[in-house]
Amino acid sequence: MSKVTIMDHPLIQHKIGIMRVKTTSTKEFRDLVSEVAMLICYEATRELPLADIEIETPLMKTTVKEIAGKKLCIVPILRAGLHMADGILNLIPNAKVGHVGLYRNEETLEPVEYFCKLPADSGDREIFVVDPMLATGGSAIAAINLLKKRGISKIHFLCLIAAPEGVKKFTEAHPDVDIFIGALDERLNDKGYILPGLGDAGDRIYGTK
Ligand SMILES: O=P(O)(O)OC[C@H]1O[C@H](OP(=O)(O)OP(=O)(O)O)[C@H](O)[C@@H]1O
Ligand SMILES: O=c1cc[nH]c(=O)[nH]1
Ligand SMILES: [Mg+2]
């Protein structure tokens, strides 16, 4: 069964609170997406394996830790996930980046795939799929189906806000994928939007509405 981690850190709660406010500007919203993604990534990478390496300080030789293998890959779900990836790259600048393009048909709420480009060696990498919103769960499930079809198995999913309906559907579809959630909200409305939520994440990041 997926491990579901809901962030309780005060900084994350504070920043998501500002994101929910409808008058928060596009610039501030965008900056917060990136900052909260970084904070969630800090927790999501807690169990990465470490290896010992020998180095020399200005005073003596010693052994320090480095992340073993450094084979990480961030996969934003376009378009709203892109800005989370930018934030995470501040913490893991050497990660490779793959892209999955999906949008949700507003009538059926079903995800529609339009793009997929992944690093050639993705199957050897630990993958962090990122999207601010897990609503019905359809988009995240479809994105991870695409990755699994390409032989990728070490997958984590990070989102800023999730609805309980989406978490249930996701964990049933991908019990082997752990989820890290900034805030777990109350429910979906009849149009599939998360309540209280923050509206349409893509529109708020890019100012398209
Ligand atoms: O869990 P679901 O019900 O599938 O909904 C969540 C999806 O909806 C939003 O994307 P959207 O379709 O608005 O695309 P965009 O990022 O291009 O705005 C969001 O970023 C997720 O990808
Ligand atoms: O509340 C929601 C649901 C889906 N997509 C969003 O951007 N927001
Ligand atoms: Mg959108």
From TrEMBL:
<keyword id="KW-0021">Allosteric enzyme</keyword>
<dbReference type="InterPro" id="IPR000836">
    <property type="entry name" value="PRTase_dom"/>
</dbReference>
<dbReference type="GO" id="GO:0005737">
    <property type="term" value="C:cytoplasm"/>
</dbReference>
<keyword id="KW-0547">Nucleotide-binding</keyword>
<dbReference type="InterPro" id="IPR050054">
    <property type="entry name" value="UPRTase/APRTase"/>
</dbReference>
<dbReference type="InterPro" id="IPR005765">
    <property type="entry name" value="UPRT"/>
</dbReference>
<comment type="pathway">
    <text>Pyrimidine metabolism; UMP biosynthesis via salvage pathway; UMP from uracil: step 1/1.</text>
</comment>
<dbReference type="GO" id="GO:0006223">
    <property type="term" value="P:uracil salvage"/>
</dbReference>
<feature type="binding site">
    <location>
        <position position="194"/>
    </location>
    <ligand>
        <name>uracil</name>
    </ligand>
</feature>
<dbReference type="GO" id="GO:0004845">
    <property type="term" value="F:uracil phosphoribosyltransferase activity"/>
</dbReference>
<feature type="binding site">
    <location>
        <position position="79"/>
    </location>
    <ligand>
        <name>5-phospho-alpha-D-ribose 1-diphosphate</name>
    </ligand>
</feature>
<feature type="binding site">
    <location>
        <position position="104"/>
    </location>
    <ligand>
        <name>5-phospho-alpha-D-ribose 1-diphosphate</name>
    </ligand>
</feature>
<dbReference type="InterPro" id="IPR029057">
    <property type="entry name" value="PRTase-like"/>
</dbReference>
<keyword id="KW-0328">Glycosyltransferase</keyword>
<keyword id="KW-0808">Transferase</keyword>
<comment type="function">
    <text>Catalyzes the conversion of uracil and 5-phospho-alpha-D-ribose 1-diphosphate (PRPP) to UMP and diphosphate.</text>
</comment>
<feature type="domain" description="Phosphoribosyltransferase">
    <location>
        <begin position="7"/>
        <end position="208"/>
    </location>
</feature>
<dbReference type="GO" id="GO:0044206">
    <property type="term" value="P:UMP salvage"/>
</dbReference>
<keyword id="KW-0342">GTP-binding</keyword>
<feature type="binding site">
    <location>
        <begin position="199"/>
        <end position="201"/>
    </location>
    <ligand>
        <name>uracil</name>
    </ligand>
</feature>
<feature type="binding site">
    <location>
        <begin position="131"/>
        <end position="139"/>
    </location>
    <ligand>
        <name>5-phospho-alpha-D-ribose 1-diphosphate</name>
    </ligand>
</feature>
<dbReference type="GO" id="GO:0005525">
    <property type="term" value="F:GTP binding"/>
</dbReference>
<feature type="binding site">
    <location>
        <position position="200"/>
    </location>
    <ligand>
        <name>5-phospho-alpha-D-ribose 1-diphosphate</name>
    </ligand>
</feature>
<protein>
    <recommendedName>
        <fullName>Uracil phosphoribosyltransferase</fullName>
        <ecNumber>2.4.2.9</ecNumber>
    </recommendedName>
</protein>
<dbReference type="GO" id="GO:0000287">
    <property type="term" value="F:magnesium ion binding"/>
</dbReference>
<dbReference type="InterPro" id="IPR034332">
    <property type="entry name" value="Upp_B"/>
</dbReference>
<dbReference type="Pfam" id="PF14681">
    <property type="entry name" value="UPRTase"/>
</dbReference>
<keyword id="KW-0460">Magnesium</keyword>
<comment type="similarity">
    <text>Belongs to the UPRTase family.</text>
</comment>
